[in-house]
Every structure is written in C-alpha cells, then in structure tokens.
Amino acid sequence: MNTIVIAILVLGIMGGVFGLILAIASKVFAVKTDPRLPEIMEHLAGANCGGCGYAGCSDCAAHILDGTAPVSACAPAGAENAAAIAEIMGVSAGSSEKMVAFVRCNGGTNASKRFEYRGVKDCIGATKVAAGPLDCSFGCLGFGSCVSACMFDAMHIGPNGSAVVDPDKCTNCQACAKACPRKLITSVPYASKVHVACSNKEKGKAAMSVCKASCIGCGLCEKNCKFDAIHVVDGVAVVDYAKCKGCKICTKVCPRDAISPIATKEEKDKFKAIQKAQAEKKAAAAAAAAEAPKAE
Amino acid sequence: MSITGLLSIALGAILVNNFIFSQFLGCCPFLGVSKKLDTAVGMGIAVTFVMGLASAITWIVNEFILVKFGLEFMQTVAFILVIAALVQFIEMFLQKSMPSLYTALGIYLPLITTNCAVLGVALLNIQSNYNFIESVVYGITGGLGFLLAIVLFAAVRERNVFADCPKCFEGFPIALITAGLMALSFMGFSGLSVWG
Questions:
Q1: Per-residue pLDDT tens digits for B96-146
Q2: Which domains does chain A have, with CATH numbers?
Q3: Cα–chain center distance at B153
Q4: Is the C or the N end of chain B the one with fewer CB within 10 Å?
Q5: Span A12-64, pLDDT tens digits
Q6: Which residues of B touch A (CB under 8 A)?
Q7: B96-131 residues labelled b (16+ CB within 10 A) or e (exposed)
Q8: How far is CA B47 from CA B41, B145, B157, B180, in A?
Q9: In angstroms, rounded to a whole number, what is the distance separating the alpha carbons of residues A89 and A28?
C-alpha cells in the first residue's frame, strides 16, 4: 500500500514538475509567428509537391511571407488562391494566367532509333547508355519519368510513344519538367492551342534524318504568320504566345507536321486551295488595276 | 572506467548490437522516414541528439528519484514521461534559440517522442548497470548506430525504386526484405570486440 502511494506521489510530482517546466518554457521560448502565415498556408495547394522549389508548403508560405517568393509561387493552387494570398500580403497578384506543361516533342515512333534499349525503364537511365536510344538527341525517350513524377495524373505516354500532357488536369507544378533529362517540358498558356512540338535545334538534313516530325528550321511558318508570332530561333520554331492568335496557319504550312495541333491532309489541301484562289484573285485585281488607267 | 571500456560500448552500440539491425528497436521511423537520403540523415541526427540527452536525464531520474524511493519497477512509465517532456522542451528551446537547427530537424523531433529506441536506450542503460558517462556514451553511439543504419537503408531504397523488381514486391515489401538482408549482414559484426 505504501509503495503505491509513494509511486503515485513521485510520478505525480514528476509529471507536475515537467508540466510546469514546459508551461514556463512555452512562455520563455515563445516564438512570435506572423498571423498571416497560417492564412497563407490555407491558400496553398497543400500537396507538398515541391513544385515551387521550397521544402513543402509551409516553407513556401514562409518564403511568400518574407517576400522572397512571389504570391503566385504555388502553381497548383491556381490564380484564385494567388489573388487571395496577394490580398493577405497587400500586394497585387499580377497577371497569373493559367499555365500548363507542354512536351516539346512529338517524336516517339516518328523518331528513328539507333539501338534497342532494354535497361531500366527510366529516361535518365536510358540517356546514360550511349546518349540514349534515339537518333535525335532532343527527342522524348518515352520511358515515362515525367509520368511517374506527375502527382495529378496529367501526364501520359501518348499513342505514338512520346509523353503528352492533359492540360485540364495539369496544375503546372513543373515536377515533370524537372524529371525530364532532355528538358523538353515547358510551361505554356492554357488558353493557347498552337505549340511547336519539337525541340530539335539541328537544321535541315540533320534534323530531317533523325525524325519524321522534326522542325528543320525552314521558316515557312515564320513567313506565313500574319501576326509575327512564330520565329525560328536557334534552329527551331518558337511561338510567341503574346502575339499568337491561334489561327493555326503555321500548322497547315509546316511541311514536317511539327506544330501541334497537327493539321490533317484535308485541312492542308483546303488551305492550299484557299491560298491558290487568293493568289489568283490578287493577280486578277492587279491585272485589272493595270488595265484601269488605260480605259480612262 | 577506462577508455577501452567506453570504446567497446561504442563499438557494441554502433555495429555489434546495432539498435535497428540486432535489437529491432526504432523500426517505425527506420521504415517510415527512409524514402529519401536527406530526410533520413535529418531523422538520424535528431535521434542521436535525443538519445544522448535522454540517456543522461533518465540516468539522473533513475539514480536520484526512482532508486531512492525504491520505485525501480516504475522505470518504463517514468522514462516515457521524462522523454516526452524532454523532447517537447528541446523542441521549444530549439525553435527559439536555434531556428536553423529546428527547421533542419523539422517534423522528426516530435516524432521521436514515441521512438522506442529512445526508451530502449534508457532501459538498457539501467539493465547494464552503466554509470553516468557510460550511459551518455551508450546513448550517443546507439544514436549513431541508428543514423548509420537509416542512412544506409535510405540509400539502398533510393536505388531500389529504379530496380526491376516483381510488381507485387514493389515499394514496401522489397524495403522489408532489404531491411532483413541488411540485418543479416550486420550479424557479421557479432563477436567483434575491443581488446584491452
């Protein structure tokens, strides 16, 4: 009986003393946290995906709070939440258009292979073996490192063996871009539909020989664009999304089908017919104009 | 107490009687926090830190409170109380005075409260009749043994992800098999001792 009382007393007192020490410590070592921190946390995606480049959502919130990260740092949270965070921080969110990832390669089965790779099913691994199984050193290897990196089921290997993004599921966290050893995945505006699906910087024959769907830097798209929105930069066509109106003329003039959405045969023929008719009309008008002064 | 005595305690705690691989203490964080090498290192350091401190405090509590009142049978309960309070206190202290260390240890510090390796080291110190310095050395080196084990294991697991293993073994099952094989390899250290 006596032992029980002593045990209860000793443990009770120990517990009490520890409790007291902790209570005092919580006051002494109290760290003042900014009340805005939990508010910002609420507007982040909470997936701890690391897409922002910080160690988890709480770290991202801390960086937003001290101003080292933009209010729109959390891409998966979207524009709405960025605006809410901006309100908390008292700054304007700026234009935060919805962006999605896009794979700049439509190679897959179009691209020719140098050898059959049978190693670990991983893109980084595949690039380590004699610089990868593809002839094209800019092509998507299709082993799906990006697919496994995607936490939103927005990334899949397409029907022709190269990776494609589902823009409706994509949150632009850029986890896939980090996983891609060939750096093919970039961020493009969701609203824009015309993208160059090739990254091959080689020109002419060098690009043509390695893949059926490569951009050879011929510049036809650049010549035909009415809005000055596509340019050949460094051997590959690049769309200027600020200027692109989405008319898709470039997709129809591209001899290599390197600009997505890839135009079908009918679309191309129709476009050629229209172009021809316009040229004839123009010639007729010019001829008429040349005739006109004589008649007077 | 000689240096060789301490050395043999250290050798025993790190390799021969490794907390994870031969005593099977602290398996929960060992399996839970070993997916990535850097987090494993963080966890290992946090455990080492707490095991060292817990050894010291529990030894004092045992010697000056429990033994005095003849309450040795209450060791487990009392040590849990001490460790929980200690970890909480360390967390508050670090948050205030060493924010960089606090952020580095992060979530692992509160997790250690329920780590049985910490309670294990406290109880083993008493069972082995260690004095204060021996207890602290045993605690710290036991923590280092944990660090060694979890870092090796995390490195193996990181590579396991890319390995071509049967579908049904992917993920956790292969990790458990790996842990078993590593424990077997640590059996090779049994019998190792410091002469002197």
A1: 877 777 776 666 777 777 778 889 999 999 999 999 999 999 999 999 999
A2: 36-89 (1.10.15.40), 97-191 (3.30.70.20), 194-268 (3.30.70.20)
A3: 14
A4: C
A5: 999 999 999 999 988 888 777 777 888 888 888 877 776 777 767 877 888 88
A6: 61, 65-66, 69-71, 74, 77-78, 81-82, 85, 88-89, 92-93, 95-97, 99, 162-164
A7: eeeeeebebbbebbebbbebbbbbbbbbbbbeeebe
A8: 10, 10, 20, 22
A9: 29
pLDDT average, residue stretch A96-120: 84
Chain A positions in Cβ-Cβ contact with residue B95 (cut-off 8 Å): 29, 31
pTM of the full structure: 0.52
Cβ of A293: how many Cβ atoms within 10 Å? Answer: 7
In this complex, the residue of B81, B92, B164 whose CB is nearest that of residue A25 is B92
User: B76: Cβ–Cβ under 8 A, 6 or more apart, which residues?
Assistant: B119, B123
Q: What is the DSSP letter of B74?
A: G
Place of tokens 């707490």: B50
Find the CB nearest B69 among A6, A15, A22.
Answer: A6
Report helix angle B37-61 to B116-127, nearest 10: 40
Could you say which residues from 27 to 46 on chain A have a Cβ atom under 8 Å away from some Cβ of chain B? Answer: 28-31
Using a CB–CB cutoff of 8 Å, tell me whether A15 touches chain B: yes
Q: What is the pLDDT of residues B72-110, one digit of tens each?
A: 888 888 999 889 888 888 888 878 877 777 776 666 777
Beta strands in chain A (DSSP E): 99-103, 155-157, 163-165, 185-189, 195-196, 230-233, 236-239, 259-260
Residues whose CB is less than 8 angstroms from the CB of residue A210 and which lie 6 or more positions away in sequence, other chains included:
A111, A112, A134, A135, A136, A139, A200, A202
B-interface mutation test, from A2, A4, A9, A14, most B Cβ less than 10 A away: A14
Residues of B in contact with A31 (CB under 8 A): 95-96, 99
Among B76, B82, B84, B75, smallest CA distance to B115 is for: B84
Tell me the shortest Cα–Cα distance from A130 to chain B, in angstroms: 19
CA-based nearest residue to B160, from B36, B19, B42, B21: B36
Report, as an integer, the average pLDDT of A171-197.
Answer: 87
What's the one-letter identity of residue B130?
A: Y
Residue-wise burial string across A19-41, b where 16 or more C-beta atoms lie within 10 A, e elsewhere: eeebeebeeeeeeeeeeeeebbb
Beta pairing partners, A233: A236
On whether any CB of chain B is under 8 Å from the CB of A92, the answer is no
For residue A105, give both structure tokens: 């390669």
